[in-house]
Specification:
The protein is mostly helical. The protein has one domain (52-315): Orthogonal Bundle (Retinoid X Receptor). The protein is built from 14 helices and two strands; from the N terminus they run H-H-H-H-H-H-H-E-E-H-H-H-H-H-H-H. Helix 7 packs across helix 9 (190-215), helix 7 packs antiparallel against helix 10 (219-230) and helix 11 (240-263) packs across helix 12. The longest helix has 26 residues, at 130-155. The chain is globular. It starts with a helix and ends with a helix. InterPro entries: NHR-like_dom_sf, Nucl_hrmn_rcpt_lig-bd, Znf_NHR/GATA. Keywords: Nucleus, Receptor, Transcription, Transcription regulation. One of its GO terms (molecular function) is zinc ion binding.
Length: 318
């Protein structure tokens, strides 16, 4: 049966607002086109999650609540994973500025936690075949990494830094120290840093980090964005079963976020807020493409060499 555009729009109008927004985004709506009225939502005072006197409210958000709990568990696991010799894992880690090589080493270690975290977040993910899991994970890991570093910089109010999952950071105002404070045999010239790397950080800050800070994105909104990144139903390699599961999971998470924004965060127009948050995703993908291009360029012109495993991780060849 072939449906006309009018029939599709009629179906959309009969849905609840969360389902309606999901459907509109799936058929190509640009969420930034949903205009926000002045003062239409309140700014969250607590970045991680607003306080609520009614804990029963969160029983209406089973997926997002489980994701938040497991994300906190992963952050605790990171403390042990990135613990240096002599450090007490039970004491608060003091963040430090690190160089490129150290960030690569940390990234390779942190990557090992991700598959288990994803499996703990989505029961449906565990039922997929190994190749489908790999397709989803391969296409979402680096976008998630880019988005998470921006989120961590945002919640720590450090707009001039890239905060890594370990809690350590790169100073974007001193990239020469980041790239040259290593034991690489070949140093990178200031000119190469300015021309090759600085544009990425400038764009990352302008299009992703600062908008995330301005929107005061909180943990549930951040986890919703990860859900959309992970369950990318536009991937041509996924099966019909995976497509169906991903569509269902995203619809459920949109419903939960709509409930949260309406009843917990007290947003006047949840659909507008959701559309604005979702519109951060193009900036995430743009940042990923840029860093992948930079990695390719440094390899082709032999500007400096990253471990092959890290190169494959960034470019999705794993």
């Amino acid at each position: 049966m072939v449906f006309t555009l009018e029939q599709k729009l009629a179906d959309i109008r009969c849905m609840c607002r969360a389902c309606r927004l999901t459907k509109c985004i799936e058929v190509g709506m640009n969420p930034v086109g949903v205009r926000q009225k002045p003062g239409s939502f309140r700014k969250s005072k607590e970045l991680i999650s607003p306080s609520s006197s009614n804990h029963d409210e969160f029983s209406r958000m089973p997926i997002l609540s489980k994701m938040k709990l497991n994300y906190e568990n992963m952050r605790n696991a990171r403390k042990a994973l990135h613990n240096e010799v002599g450090e007490n894992v039970f004491e608060e880690k003091i963040p430090k500025e690190i160089n490129y090589k150290e960030s690569v080493q940390q990234g390779m270690k942190d990557y090992t936690l991700m598959p288990e975290w994803v499996s703990s977040c989505f029961d449906e993910f565990r039922t997929l075949s190994a190749d489908q899991k790999n397709i989803l994970f391969r296409n979402s890991y680096i976008p998630f990494f880019m988005m998470e570093t921006a989120f961590l910089s945002h919640i720590n109010n450090m707009p001039d830094s890239v905060i890594f999952p370990s809690g350590d950071y790169c100073d974007m105002k001193n990239l020469e120290r980041y790239y040259n404070s290593t034991n690489f045999e070949k140093k990178i010239s200031t000119e190469d840093i300015e021309n090759l790397f600085k544009p990425f950080y400038d764009n990352y800050k302008r299009s992703l980090l600062l908008p995330m800070m301005n929107l005061q994105v909180d943990i549930y909104e951040f986890l919703t964005l990860f859900t959309l990144l992970h369950w990318d139903t536009g991937l041509v390699e996924i099966t019909d079963e995976c497509l169906e599961i991903g569509t269902k999971v995203k619809a459920e998470v949109f419903k939960e976020l709509d409930f949260y924004l309406t009843n917990v965060k007290k947003v006047a127009e949840p659909s507008v807020r959701i559309g604005t948050i979702v519109n951060l995703l193009p900036a995430v993908h743009k940042s990923v493409r840029r860093i992948q291009d930079d990695m390719e360029m440094t390899k082709v012109f032999n500007i400096f060499s990253a471990p092959n495993e890290f190169f494959d991780l960034v470019t999705g060849n794993f």
